[in-house]
Amino acid sequence: MSSITIGSIVFACVFGGAMLGTALRAALPTQHLAADSKEAVKVGMGLVATMAALVLGLLVASAKSSYDSQNSELTEMSAKIVLLDRVLAHYGPETKEARGLLRISTTRILDQGWSKDRNGESQLDPRSAGADILYDAIQQLSPKDDRQRSLQAQGLSIGMSLAETRWLMWEQGTTSISLPLLIALIFWLTALFISFGLFAPPNATVVASFFISALSVSAAILLIVEMYTPYAGIIRISSAPLRSALAQLGL
Fold this sequence. Notes:
By secondary structure, the chain is an all-alpha fold.
C-alpha cells in the first residue's frame, strides 16, 4: 500500500470522526452534553491523546532512524567504491577489466535506485549489480610480487565489505512501518476527533479547523511511511554521493 493511500485513509478516518462527533452532538440528549459529561470525556481523551503522542513519536523516531541508516550506508558504500577503484588502479593495468566492471556495477546501482519512475518501488537487489563477477575478476588476478599480492588482498577485502554493505541495505529496505502501532494510532486519533466534534459548535470555522488538523495528522503519517521507502516515492535519499563516486572512477 502506497504512502498516499495510507495518508488518505488516515485523513478519511480522522476528519470523518470529527464530522461524526458533530452529528452525534445534534442527536444526543442535552444532559449528555452537560459540563460534567464534558469534563469526564476530556479526562479520558487526555489519556488517549497522551498515548497517541507517544506512539506517533515512536513511529517518527523509528522511520527517521531507518532513513538515516540507509543514507549513511549509501555514503559508506560510495566511499568504498572509490577506494576499491584506487586500489585496483595502483595494482596496475591488469585491473582494467575489473575497474570497468566496477563502473558498470555502480551505474547499475544508480539506475536501480534512482529511476525516473518515482511511483514504483526501487529494487536494490545486490545480485543484479554484478558484484560476484567483480569479486571473481579481482580473485583471478595473478600478482607478480608482494606489492601486488597486498593490493589484491586489499581489493578482495574491500569488495567483500562492499557486498556486505549492499546486502545490509537490501535487508533494511524490507523494513516497514509497524502495522499494529499504525492501526492503534489511527483508532486513537479518530476517537480524539470524535470527542472534538462532540463538544464543538458546528460552524464553518470549526469544520475548517478540523479539516486542517486532520490534513496535518495525515501528512505526518504519510511522511513517516515515506521515510521507510527512501528509494521510491516523494522523499528520496540523494544520489549525490554515488554520482560523485562514479565521477571518480577510472581517473
